[in-house]
Amino acid sequence: MSQPAMTPAEFEQALRAKGALYHIHHPFHRAMYEGRATREQIQGWVANRFYYQVNIPLKDAAILANCPDRETRREWIQRILDHDGAPGEEGGIEAWLRLAESVGLDREQVLSQELVLPGVRFAVDAYVNFARRASWQEAASSSLTELFAPQIHQSRLDAWPQHYPWIDVTGYDYFRKRLKEARRDVEHGLRITLEHYRTREAQERMLQILQFKLDVLWSMLDAMSMAYELQRPPYHTVTNERVWHRGIEL
Ligand SMILES: O=C(O)c1cc(C(=O)O)c2c(n1)C(=O)C(=O)c1cc(C(=O)O)[nH]c1-2
Fold first, then answer.
1. 53 CB less than 6 Å from ligand 1?
2. Ligand 1 geometric centre to CA of 29 (Å)
3. What is the ipTM of this complex?
4. 187 Cα: distance to centroid of ligand 1 (angstroms)
5. In angstroms, rounded to a whole number, what is the distance separating the alpha carbons of residues 105 and 187?
6. Does the pTM of the predicted model rise above 0.95?
């Protein structure tokens, strides 16, 4: 006999408990928050995270494409506008590019994605591909690592200005903007998730999906640790050149 389903409150509790594995605990993130990161490490993080930023709208468009429910689409579409912007509204991708400039990166170099490490690219691509192939409810619920995102954005707003006075403060707009947006996203994502997963098996599956998403975020930082902390970027034993691929257009 399988176990009885968790109540919505128990299920939400189980989802929130996954915060123990959020990338806020990754050593690379801890170093940034505690003021131990070098300029090169911060720049590497910003340039690599840009790949996540530009792929979030593709991920959300995949969810919309798979969702026959008009009411859901009306709400979900806001996520694309949050990142891409709209007439009179800058959008998160542009705000991220300003963050990049604030940490001393060249805008064109960030846009070229030449600094994006293969491990980061593969992790982000796995997330987008999951959203393409999963049901819209499963893909929607995989965004719920955002439950833990306001805390991580706030930690940067609190800690970075004091540790890294060389970063231009105009760069912090992105984190401030996400505090509000992430809370709203989570409210919608939770509504869908608590409604959709009603059996114990389905709830356990959802926890695995959330674990997959935690793995995406953790793996991105693992790749950055190798390159910028341990000085072991791909192919470092044979060349100092960034020979890795820059994404293959299909
Ligand atoms: O800076 C972070 O640590 C962080 C984490 C996450 C997350 O938990 O996936 C997101 C973001 N930021 C973020 O800025 C963002 O727009 C976002 C969208 C999503 C998503 O899965 O749809 N996650 C995140």
1. no
2. 14
3. 0.99
4. 14
5. 34
6. yes
Q: How many CB atoms lie within 10 A of CB 150?
A: 17
For ligand 1, mutation pick of 146, 160, 188, 221 (most atoms within 8 Å of CB): 146
Could you read off the pLDDT of 115-153 as tens digits, one per residue? 999 999 999 999 999 999 999 999 999 999 999 999 999
Q: How many whole angstroms separate alpha carbon 177 and alpha carbon 96?
A: 11
Residues 75-85, buried b or exposed e (16+ Cβ, 10 A)?
A: ebeebbebbbe
- What is d(CA 110, CA 135) in angstroms, rounded to the nearest whole number? 33
For ligand 1, is residue 103 a contact (CB within 6 Å)?
Answer: no
- Distance (Å, whole) CA 178 – CA 180: 5
48 lines ligand 1 (CB under 6 A): no
Token pair for 163: 């540790």
If you average pLDDT over residues 16-22, what whole number do you get?
98
Closest CA to 145 of 228, 52, 44: 52
In short, whether 146's Cβ falls inside 6 Å of ligand 1 is yes
Instruction: Indicate whether residue 6 lines ligand 1 (CB < 6 A).
Output: no
The tally of CA atoms less than 13 A away on the side-chain side of residue 176 is 9
